[in-house]
Amino acid sequence: GDSVTQTEGPVTVSESESLIINCTYSATSIAYPNLFWYVRYPGEGLQLLLKVITAGQKGSSRGFEATYNKETTSFHLQKASVQESDSAVYYCALGDPPSGSWQLIFGSGTQLTVMP
Amino acid sequence: EAAVTQSPRNKVTVTGGNVTLSCRQTNSHNYMYWYRQDTGHGLRLIHYSYGAGNLQIGDVPDGYKATRTTQEDFFLLLELASPSQTSLYFCASSERGGAREQYFGPGTRLTVL
């Protein structure tokens, strides 16, 4: 079945350092899935950080970027300089719009702590 | 702005207990979802609904019932709670299905002793 694998946490970095959280997907039944990054801040629900629906395109939000790479089936999340306020859990997810399926497939989440 | 609320935020019960988790969305969305989140797992879909009175089975439905009473309200029922159902539960809504953006509530942490 379809699946998402991402960097196992927890990840700890210092403020102003760069960050990469790896995400790879397996979409055996989906030719061109939609790809998402969600973020969950402490005490809150998940919220969409960015999404990309076209292979080769890059999405960006709040200083984070992710590029949809169909060749390597990857959608890594990067930020050049993290802030303490970026401490949260990050989830990679995929979905299949052409089939009309309701389902989003989520990775297990990566807990990020940014030290001041 | 999209709003999904859940209650209670925390719940402790005993094995065999009866638990109802509530979710309300004020987005006028058709689709609503119940997920559970466990360490080492992604969010796993329990049940979902695309309108009042409708219920669809997700990936991990065993031990759970759900009911969508109105467009706004979606309930998750555990009639004989077991320790394996200790988890963090999220409710979400979306305007349409088909892998569109989902809006999540803050979660309910359930502990079954």
Distance between the termini of chain A: 41 Å
* Quaternary: heterodimer
H/E element sequence of chain B: EEEEEEEEEEE
Low-confidence stretches of chain A: none
User: What is the structural class of chain B?
Assistant: mainly beta
Tell me, what's the shape of chain B?
globular
Question: Total strand count of chain A, please?
Answer: 12
Give helix % range of chain B.
Answer: under 10%
Average pLDDT reading of chain B: 92
Task: Provide a count of the helices of chain A.
Answer: 0
Keywords:
heterodimer, A: 116 residues, mainly beta, globular, B: 113 residues, four-stranded antiparallel β-sheet, 49% strand
Structure report:
The complex is a heterodimer of chains A (116) and B (113). Chain A has strands spanning 3-6, 11-14, 19-21, 23-26, 34-40, 46-52, 58-61, 64-67, 77-79, 88-95, 104-106, 110-115. With 116 residues, chain A is mostly beta strands. In chain A, strands 2, 5, 6, 10, 11 and 12 form a six-stranded mixed beta sheet that branches. Chain A is globular, with a radius of gyration of 14 Å. Chain A starts with a strand and ends with a strand. Chain B has 113 residues and is mostly beta strands. Helix content of chain B is 0%, strand content 49%. Chain B is built from no helices and eleven strands. Chain B is globular and about 35 Å long. The chains are: A mainly beta (116), B mainly beta (113).
